Automatic annotation (TrEMBL):
Assigned keywords, A-Z: Disulfide bond, Electron transport, Redox-active center, Transport
Family: Belongs to the thioredoxin family.
Superkingdom of this protein's organism: Bacteria
Pfam family, one: Thioredoxin
Stored CDD domains: TRX_family
Cystine connections: 34-37
InterPro entries linked to this entry: Thioredoxin (IPR005746), Thioredoxin-like_sf (IPR036249), Thioredoxin_CS (IPR017937), Thioredoxin_domain (IPR013766)
GO terms, biological process: cell redox homeostasis
Gene Ontology CC: cytosol
Transmembrane regions: none
Protein name as it appears in the record: Thioredoxin
Length: 109
């Protein structure tokens, strides 16, 4: 399920769009069959729009991109992982309210 305003990344584009990005990138590891992922869609769309000055938000479909999922040992969806300087700096699993999600990442943004 593609979120409006949130770019989709793939195994092929992950290094360029996430690891080589200049600023922090929040990656949602998601799947079409995941109800909590659908709950996160409007929250991530809001964050992508409201925090664009300091954060890029992307999503990766784990069913279509198993290499990246395996590389970061993502076992549960949704997993939100924040990358900075090509490295994962924080990861959270499960649906959250927008304010809570932003608080959990605030100190690493």
């Amino acid at each position: 399920m593609q979120i409006t305003g949130v770019a989709a990344v793939t195994d092929e584009t992950f290094a360029e769009q996430v690891l080589a990005a200049e600023g922090p990138v929040l990656v949602e590891f998601t799947a079409d069959w995941c109800p909590p992922c659908r709950m996160m869609a409007p929250i991530l769309a809001d964050i992508a729009r409201e925090e664009a000055h300091r954060l890029t938000v992307v999503q990766l479909d784990v069913d279509r991109n198993p290499e990246t999922q395996a590389a970061y040992a993502v076992l549960s969806m949704p997993t939100m992982m924040l990358f900075r300087g090509g490295e994962p700096v924080r990861s959270v699993v499960g649906a959250r309210a927008k304010a809570r999600l932003l608080r959990e990442f605030d100190d690493v943004l």
